[in-house]
Amino acid sequence: MDIKKLQSLVIGALEDVKAQDIRLFDTMHLTSLFDRIVIASGTSNRQTKALAASVRDKVKAEGGHILSIEGETTGEWVLVDLGDMIVHIMQPAIRAYYRLEEIWGEKEIKLGAAKRKPSTGTKITSHILGSTPTKTTASTTPARKTTASKTAPKTATKSSTKTASKTASKSAGKTASKSSSAKRTAVKKSK
Fold first, then answer.
1. How far apart are CA 181 and CA 11, in angstroms?
2. What is the C-alpha separation between 92 and 5, in angstroms, rounded?
3. Do β-strands 108-109 and 20-26 pair in parallel, antiparallel, or remain unpaired?
4. Among the four given CATH numbers 1.10.150.20, 3.30.460.10, 3.40.50.1860, 1.20.272.10, the one describing domain 3-116
5. What average pLDDT values come out for the chain (191 residues) when binned by 10 residues?
6. Alpha-carbon span 70 to 159, nearest angstrom
7. How far apart are the two ends of the chain, measured CA to CA in Å?
8. Domain residue spans in the chain?
């Protein structure tokens, strides 16, 4: 399958299931293993699995071949290997941690208007009867930055600190009770 047709199919399949922050990179100058890499985000395990299934189904329907799909059991990071193209579908925290854009992102391919569907904010209006309709697009607000990468280490630190302090207090309590019972035993023996 032609690489242009393949990338158009993949982008369309991802947009159908509402993938977030879709990025397409040309990797021909970096590796001979594949020509393109797509990185997209899904908001949950269920959505990442659905995004991978959508890519698989659309490519198969057009006669393309799926070499492998990895990570569908957990759904945090699903990789779809299409031979000439690799599709990474990740949850935002995983994506922020691994930052694949820094590795492969030297030559980003801009997704043109022909490859993308119009946004939901597009509407056609006509101000005067008999005039030609004009297309207006509502401005889209930029996506909020994900703080999952910032909160994940803090959460892990807080929970590990709590666990460590609970363990320390339990062992201290056991040690104190053992030492007090040892003192009682020693006092009884001395009497």
1. 71
2. 27
3. antiparallel
4. 3.30.460.10
5. 91 95 92 93 96 96 95 95 96 95 84 47 41 47 45 45 46 48 50 50
6. 30
7. 94
8. 3-116
